[in-house]
Amino acid sequence: MKKALLHICLFAIPFLTFGQEQLVSMGEGYGNQVFYSLSTGESVTYPLTTWDVAFSVDRFDASVFVNEAVNNSRSNPIPEVEAFFTVATDFETADTMDIIERIFNPEVSWSQGAFNAMLNPEDPFDLGWGAYNPVNNTVSSSKIFFVKLRSGTYKKFEIMSLAGGEYTVRYANLDNTEEMMHTINKDDFAGKTLAYLSIEQDSVMDLEPASWDMTFTRYWTPLEDTPGVDYMVTGIITNTGVQVAQVDDVEDPETTAFADYEASLTDSTLYLIGHDWKSFDLGSFSWSIPNKVFFVKAAASDSVWKLTFLDFEGSGTGVTALKRTFAGVISTSTSIGNTFEQVSSYRVYPNPSTGAFTVDFDLSQNISEARLDIRNHLGQSIYQEKINVLSGKNIKSLSVDLPQGVYYVSLSRGSSSITKPIYILR
């Protein structure tokens, strides 16, 4: 069977006319964490205090994170969650005298959190909080931690195991009273990045929306030019699967084209957008926005967005003004292909579309009937129709009422199919 694969497809449309300006708010004092979707422009907001510890639910990861985020306050002490590495290996006898140092999230990868930070890089089975056993494919506790809650209370904290895709954790007061135990099954959080635990509320939570690309939050990061000194910043952390290309010192964001920077897309760290898309001027005592453009490939699709920051209001409101512009779709050979030998041409237009579009294709022979499908970025079928087709040119007009986002239009017969992406713009 002949197989023609589409390696890269960028829509030849003047996308710069489709930019949308909007406000994203973390609230006064940056008191909220915001999960943001580029494809929809929608956000989900939670108070920073909602959770204390989070667990990766990727099937291959055993990473555990501490919630470093705290609001900004000039008048009151800032309560924060702090995690500490200790020399203790026995939960019952562990004491705060065993504390060695505070640990932080590396913010480099979703595969390593604060509780993994003290691993021995020369030991492939050391995961920081526990040791991996390749015989039974489990991770068992090797260290005891302490977590200081926002209330000021210290808790012993142990990640007892990760077995069969299920974490078992426990925590207790320093005198071993009020011990609590939780199990966190990765399968209960399918499609998510982290499962969240509130020690204060004794609750495991599913907080993330079904699809998100960036989270606006607060985190500790090393001070530039001062090794060993960390400070709290307000910034953006990208989700797993997101890729970013940063363009500095642009003359005109409107004419900066993705095609010129496509090769720079990377997912090397979580803070590719980070916090330095803004800067504070001590002279004017105000925030300014450098001339930067970010091209961001979304987490759950192959859509690429141009992201330009317009304003940042600081802790008074926590508001960021940004402009997101659809820049096209990258489609790799693994996601879009052609195994439909009888189809010699296949077009979906206009693209982007408001919901009314045309499917235009040529057949080399008469096959009488085919199936037309529209699927969303999760692979779910949202429209299906059997159509009569003949040898030669075929034209099918469609009008669908769909939310804004990237969809995939497929023509198929039996196991043969050809697929093209389309972006619905509202």
In short:
With 426 residues, the protein is an all-beta fold.
User: Considering DSSP H and I runs of 4 or more, what fraction of the residues is helical?
Assistant: under 10%
Distinct helical segment count:
0
Straight-line distance between termini: 40 Å
Largest sheet: 8 strands, antiparallel
Uncertain residue ranges: 1-17
Structural class: mainly beta
Residue-averaged pLDDT: 88
Gross geometry: globular
Strand segment count:
32
> Beta fraction of the residues?
over 45%
Can you characterise this structure?
- There is one protein chain.
- With 426 residues, this protein is an all-beta fold.
- The chain contains no helices and 32 strands.
- The strands form eight sheets. Strands 7, 8, 9, 10, 11, 12, 13 and 14 form an eight-stranded antiparallel sheet that branches.
Secondary structure layout:
Blueprint: E1 4-5, E2 20-25, E3 32-36, E4 43-47, E5 53-56, E6 64-66, E7 82-86, E8 99-103, E9 130-133, E10 138-141, E11 145-148, E12 154-163, E13 166-172, E14 180-185, E15 194-198, E16 203-205, E17 214-222, E18 230-238, E19 243-247, E20 279-281, E21 286-288, E22 293-297, E23 303-312, E24 319-329, E25 337-338, E26 343-349, E27 356-363, E28 368-375, E29 381-389, E30 392-399, E31 405-413, E32 416-424
Antiparallel strand pairs: 1-25, 2-24, 3-4, 3-17, 5-6, 5-15, 7-8, 7-11, 9-10, 10-12, 11-12, 12-13, 13-14, 15-16, 17-18, 19-22, 20-21, 22-23, 23-24, 26-27, 27-30, 28-29, 28-31, 31-32
